[in-house]
Amino acid sequence: MFWMVALPAVDGQQYVYRVHAPDDAPAADLFWAAFHCHDEGPHPRASDWFDSAVIWSSRQTQQI
Fold first, then answer.
1. How far apart are CA 60 and CA 58, in angstroms?
2. Could you report the per-residue pLDDT of 50-59, keeping only the tens digit for each?
3. How many CB atoms are closer than 10 A to CB 45?
4. pTM recorded for the entire structure
5. Which of 6, 24, 30, 41 has a CA positioned 20 to 30 A from the CA of residue 56?
6. By the 8 A CB rule, do 20 and 37 touch?
7. What whole-number distance in Å separates Cα of residue 11 and Cα of residue 47?
8. How big is the chain by its Cα radius of gyration, in Å?
9. How far apart (Å, rounded) are the C-alpha atoms in residues 17 and 34?
């Protein structure tokens, strides 16, 4: 299963990350996984306010 985590950034954009985690993963763990992934990339700084993130699950299997 994977989760989608949307983080608002200082440039006004919202960056969405896919986080692979179990069904019972704590929301804080999902947030920090996405935040650290964003921090390592070339994008403008994301908000580190947990309450500003939007987190939803996706049970769909995705073929690439």
1. 5
2. 889 999 998 7
3. 11
4. 0.79
5. 41
6. no
7. 10
8. 12
9. 6
